[in-house]
Hints:
nucleotide-binding, Folylpolyglutamate_synth_CS, membrane, 6-stranded mixed sheet, 10-stranded mixed sheet, EC 6.3.2.17
Amino acid sequence: MWLRSVGAAPTLKFHCFPGVIAKPTSSKSVAGLPLSRNHLALITSKQEMTAEYEEALICLSSLITRRTRADRSNKGDSFDLLFEYLKILDLEAAISPLNVIHVAGTKGKVGSTCTFTESIIRSCGFRTGLFTSPHLIDVRERFRLDGVEVSEKMFLEHFWWCWNRLQDKTCDDLPMPNYFRFLALLAFRMFSAERVKFTFLSNAFLFFFIDVISTPLSMLIGFISLLQLLIQKFVIQEESFKSKCDCTTSVAVLHSYICFCMKQVDAAIMEVGLGGKFDATNVVQEPIVCGISSLGYDHMEILGYTLEEIAGEKAGIFKKNVPAYVAPQPESALHTLEEKASQLGIPLHVVSPLDPGLLKGQHLGLAGEHQFINAGLAVALSTFWLTKTGNLKNIQRNENVSIIFPYSFLSFQRNVSSMVCLVDQILPEQFIRGLSSANLEGRAQIIPDRVMQQQNSNNRCLTFYLDGAHSPESLEVCAKWFSTALREDSHHFEEHPHGKSPDGQGGYPDSDKVDCLQILLFNCMSVRDPQVLLPHLLNTCLKNGVKFHKAIFVPNQSVFNKVSSHASPPTDSEQVDLSWQLTLQRVWDNLCHAEGSSSLVFPSLPLAIKWLRESAQQGRSIRFQVLVTGSLHLVGDVLRLIKK
């Protein structure tokens, strides 16, 4: 139903200054007119802001291509157009100062690596911009400044700035960029704009002191009070900064300095969206360092059906004079990466997993044994970034250590390999803090159901274990994590069977014996092969002593070709196509015919969640442990529902 309402891009034009959000006007009404405050309408209420945000998401949805993902003609499609978009958005010279860390790899692993890297650099005292994909609930999750997703106001400010410029300049020969390319350009705009504002305002702030340094104390106090009111009352236009330096300018400078000096982007960590060579993030020509996480079979319909082909696409982010660090790889993939590095004459470092003992008793912020591989790569990337930017010595001085690399690595250059083993294995406190505080929703995440918490003294009777794994390798990793988490949970329950445990989790006061039922909540995209995915998940769980009592298959609420801040289940009048879910059910039943596991198909996710809650309510002495996996879209939909 909604497909008919999206259609082509709306013919709306939005004009706004930094810090100002403008309501839409038709393109005819603004054609040829200079920008002025008469064309602006400030958004003051949360409801208006949300409505404006939804309009932006409708425009964003119009950029999603309708071609199937299996159409390999998408690969490299008009890549050179990206540089034209950079010119339109004045971003050509703005990217290099961002000190970019560019990371590719198989989904899940590369996101974790980027998250660890950002957290480490931020813990070292630097301002960070992080661009990742996909998002789970809200598109703003893809853009993080200092570890926090950007506000609706900031998103709208930069979104309409980019949208209007591109709408004005694009044509048949230069069409609007597609969905992901627009988001990547938007990320560069956000991160570079914050840095430009800081650079300008740091200098202009001096003029403020020239204006007020000799002001009597009583006048200065009054001025500060007035200043506070002005900041709350008005949005200052950036153009006025450059025209004059009177008292009004000083107020504007101080306001903007307060707002943006804490948002200077020292490092931009950019995660590749798909592949590498032709990815939109690969417009970065001079990154500080490149990284590739562990590679696996994913997006094969686009990247190729062998690890050599996939590695070749990922190695497309390598640049001359830019070192590359990679996680351990299968031999065939590593050989391809080495070849690509040799052609460019750059060193290729293969980083070993992080030694858990270096964390001094702390745990990684992202759960799972596989995360030590991602953490090791993140430490390498962060260390090189600190070295290249001249900041490593400050960390070493503070920690009183001379060597930071806490691992061994292979260094490949021009087909000559040598093992470099560093003896002093010391991890600075900032690194430990960054690794232990890293957070990434929807990956190895455990959430007790809030509704059941409110209804029952036993607040662990329904728990969701969420992981967006969607490839054979990642589903094996997911199964191992789930098995480990269940063992840890069982051990915790044995220590605290009644009442509240030290960490605040509830016990089971009415029963000394509690049964646990493991339930699978699964969906995957139709381009994936369930005959490959489900056996990897099931067999790994069985090897680790986990047997699913029931499997539930549901369609996603969110849809691939529409961006929204919320997702709605289908109405009764809508016909839901469950043919794919029935296919998944048949595959599962064939796998589990001897295991005694049953299965269900629900027409919507809310109905499945409702059934789980009712079952948990009826069986108060049973703990329902639900593994949600197979699709990041599914994980995002579950998060959206259980967080309401």
